[in-house]
Specification:
Layout: H1 3-67, H2 71-92, H3 100-121, E1 123-126, E2 138-144, E3 154-159, E4 161-164, E5 167-170, E6 172-177
Parallel strand pairs: 2-6
Antiparallel strand pairs: 1-4, 3-6, 4-5
Helix pairs in contact: 2-3
């Protein structure tokens, strides 16, 4: 073979090597990108599963919080129930049959505990005789006429109203004046 023929042969093979090496490089890049993609997809799936577990855990916590939210209030009321039992026992005891003063003291003690419990929980009572009827806070059960009283003035309170924080939890039940 002549020198010219060898040079031509080399020139023809060299571009093929470069072309093959470019193809190899592209294949290698594709493999690397595919690997990176699978790693990212794996991270995504794990993160999604972790978030789903977090959401489910929080849902359970909230459900339990709502389900047992009154537990503290109930525990606080147990001592009041115990006091009521003691008053009942005192009334039924033969020595205290005629002791209305002991009953009054027992009832005052229970009422003090109830009011303290309400205060600690942010529960306020409202409605006094002499106030003017407000339909936002009062339910008029009866109407009565009395001289010297204003129209819609509260004459009698059957049940006090109660507010929990800024929410009315029970309207006051009242008798009002009709002029």
């Amino acid at each position: 073979m002549s020198v010219k023929a060898e040079k031509k042969k080399k020139k023809k093979t060299e571009p093929k090597k470069k072309q093959v090496s470019k193809e190899d490089q592209l294949v290698k890049n594709i493999e690397e990108l595919t690997l990176q993609l699978s790693v990212i997809e794996d991270k995504h799936v794990r993160l999604k599963a972790e978030f789903d577990n977090f959401r489910k855990r929080k849902e359970k916590e909230i459900i339990n919080l709502i389900r047992y939210e009154g537990e503290d209030a109930i525990k606080s009321m147990l001592s009041i129930a115990d006091d009521l039992d003691r008053v009942k026992d005192a009334v039924e005891h033969p020595e205290h049959k005629d002791s209305s003063e002991a009953i009054k003291k027992g009832m005052d003690l229970i009422l003090q505990k109830i009011h303290k419990l309400f205060e600690e929980r942010g529960i306020e009572s409202f409605c006094e005789v002499g106030e003017i009827l407000d339909s936002e806070f009062h339910d008029a059960l009866m109407v009565r006429e009395e001289e010297g009283k204003q129209e819609n003035e509260i004459l009698e309170v059957f049940e006090k109203g109660y507010k929990y924080k800024d929410r009315i939890i029970r309207h006051a039940k009242v008798v009002v004046n009709k002029a």
